[in-house]
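It is worth pausing here to work through a concrete case rather than discussing structure prediction in the abstract. The textbook approach is simple: state the sequence, then state the predicted structure, then interpret. We follow exactly that order.
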Amino acid sequence: MNPLMPHLARVLSSTSLLSLRRGYHSAKRRLAGRLHMLDVFIRVDDPYSYLLLQVMDDVCSRFNVEVKWWVIVESPEDMYPEKTMWREYACRDAEHLARLYNLDFPSQLPALEQAAIDHTAVSLLSLPVDDFPRQARGLLAALWQGRMPTQLLALDSWARQCLAENSQRLQTLGHYAGAMIYCAPEWYWGVDRLDHLERRLIAEGGAKRSDEKAVYTRSYSGFCRGERADVVDPDLPLVLYWSARSPYSYLALEKAAQLSEHYGIALEVKPVLPMMMRGMPVPPDKKMYIFHDTVREAEKQGLEYGFVADPLGDAVERCYALCDYAESSGRLLPFLLSFARGVNAQGIDAASDRGLKRIIQRCGLDWEAARQQLGNEHWRGAVQKNLEEMYAMGCWGVPSFRYGELVLWGQDRIGIVENAMIGSAALHRC
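Step two, the predicted structure:
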């Protein structure tokens, strides 16, 4: 590992640099006499785009913003290594998110035929700008509820050109997905990241009321707070599929450990190889979005992040080679937490003996005993088995949770796990 990389990551993740970047764009905006500009990218067949569209009227009613709508129908293939699995999971996940915020999303999904998607895209492109949100909600509701007209519009040359230009706009600004909001110089994904946008607009004087607060916080605002509630099934473990390289896995591990301690339930951590070590590329735009998104998600959760010593390769393998030793010593979770904190927040080079020794010793393990295990290959079979289990339950990426029959992907779904544990559908309601 390049010894300068953690320091560069710390600079890139610093609040000072973010303030400078925001200040530059804010100054440009004020000089031009403009409101905050939100570029909102709606992908026709993306369930998260449908949910985002339903809340944008609320956002616009509370903040002084200009909105420009961009309709897209495609995303780069390399951004979704398991596109079919992603689409199936996204629809299930959208149901959870819709229930959390009282939004519309059908429990029985129609087959989204390409002709219906094309018709909806053409119709969206033809909407008047001043009435786009209202009419767009109706069009997407019809698509997702299977209420399509008999005669469907086909993509003509004009529509194809518009869609191509919109996709190019998305890529030029530096992103790849639907349900994205760009407020220079940052990206905000769907309903899940509106809280970050809300707080930024409030801080920069963009709220219409002086007492405005972020309201899109239900996925985490009540997490492990108050008196400990009774768990529906105290013998049911929480299973976390985890990667030693994934920054989101780091956040998920911290929150899962907190959840386990708070409710006294067992936590099983099942490591899998990082995507890049499975031959699945992660394009630069995706890497940078994940990095900056983790910075703000960590800050929101009161966790350190940014002094990153990327463990890709040897450090990951050394971590996994020590899992059996740590588990036999009754210290697997402390070891994984020590490793994750070290490579994500403390700039520790876990590929070096010096760095790994520090990680090992501070979690109560013996370095000399651990060092004897570094050359073993037994872990590879277990890690592959964990990956196969994860795929079998409909997930391909980390962090993924399993709690009984509940399967969830993403560190920001830990609140839904908590709800399931205590049999509550309203824990995170405002």
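Step three, interpretation. The radius of gyration is 23 Å. Residues 426-430 have pLDDT under 50 and may be disordered.
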